[in-house]
Amino acid sequence: MRYFSQLLDDTELTSLLEEEPDWGIEAIAFGIGDTLDRGQDAVEAYRRRMGAWLEKRPFSVHGPFLDLNPGSFDTLIREATLCRFRQAYRAAAELGADRIVFHTGFQPATCYEEGWPEKAVEFWKQFLDGTDGSLAVHLENVMDLHWEVIRGILDRVDCPYFTACLDLGHLWVFSGQKPEEWIAGLGGRIGHLHLHDNTGKQDSHSALGDGSIPWDSVLPALRRYCPGASVTIENSRPDQARASLRFLRTGESAAGFFQ
């Protein structure tokens, strides 16, 4: 499964979909609380907005994350997070999505790698208890420092359809560990990938090859450790998305990643 993030506007996105018949959409609309507040009306509005693309292409949903924290020590914050995550999950299921992506919520300035993971494990067990496996659920790194924490959460929750979404751009900015360490460490626990580039200073969502991520070693590691992972290209401009596709198809370091 391959997706373009809906960071692009609808006209730009549909133009790419027309060019790429095997690619689908990763929606971001249901990552916003105001959208989730509208409930069924928001679902119907999105269905009208995207029309047949939802029926004939792979469809993924990016869940909400602003002000939310599954590992919070505050029970009310966890309750609000659970409510929003469940709302997004229901919308994704109704729209026929095959997967949904949630951020870990880890914030280095306010969260601690001792204690926070235990609360996150409790949260994810509670959340997944209300799901049936019809959607894959992915846990995405953002400001996370170490892959070991995410692996520990996934292993302790121990749900076959709960895997990692490895975001290469995020780890390049926020983690001191090398991408190859993340890939080897999470290995087969990686079910989904977010691909974009940057120079290590800002999460710029640049085209692949326009930053400093060492793709010549990263792409072979991805092929080795998680060859079955689905992929989303997360660029905010159509020229960047096209450049990323060219990089994956024709770049020397990408040989064999996409055909």
Structural write-up:
By secondary structure, the chain is of the alpha/beta class. 44% of the residues lie in helices and 15% in strands. The protein is built from eleven helices and eight strands. It has an eight-stranded parallel beta barrel, surrounded by six helices. The relative contact order is 0.12.
Brief account:
By secondary structure, this protein is α/β, with parallel strands linked by helices.
Structural class: alpha/beta
- For the largest beta sheet, what order do the strands appear in spatially? 1-2-3-4-5-6-7-8
Overall strand count: 8
In which range does the helix fraction lie? 40-55%
Mean pLDDT: 96
In percent terms, what proportion of residues is strand?
Answer: 15-25%
Poorly predicted runs of 5 or more residues: none
Termini separation comes to: 13 Å
Please report the number of helical segments: 11
Overall 3D form = globular
What's the SSE pattern? EHEHHHEHEHEHEHHEHEH
C-alpha Rg (nearest Å): 17 Å
Largest sheet: 8 strands, parallel, barrel
Keywords:
259 residues; alpha/beta; eight-stranded parallel β-barrel; 8 strands
Topology:
Layout: E1 2-5, H1 10-19, E2 23-27, H2 33-37, H3 40-50, H4 53-56, E3 59-62, H5 75-94, E4 99-103, H6 116-128, E5 136-140, H7 147-157, E6 162-167, H8 168-174, H9 179-186, E7 190-195, H10 215-225, E8 230-233, H11 238-250
Parallel strand pairs: 1-2, 1-8, 2-3, 3-4, 4-5, 5-6, 6-7, 7-8
Helix pairs in contact: 6-7, 7-9, 9-10
